[in-house]
Amino acid sequence: xxxxxxxxxxxxxxxxxTASAFGLIVLPNQFAAGGVTGFSVLLQNxxxxxxxxxxxxxxxxxxxxxxxxxxxxxxxxxxxxxxxFPFMLEITLxxxxxxxxxxxxxxxxxxxxxxxxxxxGLILLGNGSGGGxxxxxxxxxxKFGTPVSIVMYICDFIVILTQTVSNGILKTVYGxxxxxxxxxxxxxxLVRGKSAGRIFIFSQKQEEIRTELLDKLDVGMSYINSxxxxxxxxxxxxxxxxxxxxxxxxxxxxxxxxxxxxxxVDTVHYVSGRGYTMDR
Length: 280
Hints:
This protein is of the alpha+beta class and 280 residues long. Helices cover 61% and strands 10% of the residues. It contains 10 helices and 4 strands; from the N terminus they run ααααααααβαββαβ.
């Protein structure tokens, strides 16, 4: 019950933030926008209605199509976003707190991308859907097996390219910057606090290092069967995943045992499971 309530809060907060990105910065600065919002901006040239109203109409149309072709379970997850987004968009379009930023389009695009990415990330964390063209993508995926991402990319490309005619290339570039920044932020939000260091240890003193890791540092590890490239000898590689603040401790312990050890460290962006996020 609490988990479901939290997921709804995340979806609501994310929807408000995504609407704020468009209402406070993207649309007032006339940056090219993808998705249903960008499509509604184009549609406004034909239908003299507020952008927020057109977004609501398009979202509800896609919602009904999703209901018919996909099913109620999926559609209910998108209904909340489909209604909250245009409502908040209309409110934020009336607010001018970022008016001073209009003189610096580049900074505006960075801020818009950050807010949009945070909002989309929260929606995804709440197991929600942004609605819009991803509903169309799911429909085509179910009927024809077309990848959802491909459908969304094609729709966004067409919408943004069409806006170039009226907005100019520069505004389109800023719109692309918004999308790129939001993509980066979404990745950061989804792996928040879950990044870790992965360490590969090549050494002849495997048992001593194993004992040090398990008994003194309380670090889990695994052996990977391997063959050396030069001597073609059968050997084992020690692989462990630790919190980033533990990486240096592990390295110091390994080199204290075997100064000639070959150690490789890289960063992984998501770790979960027994021995790391669950008790061994």
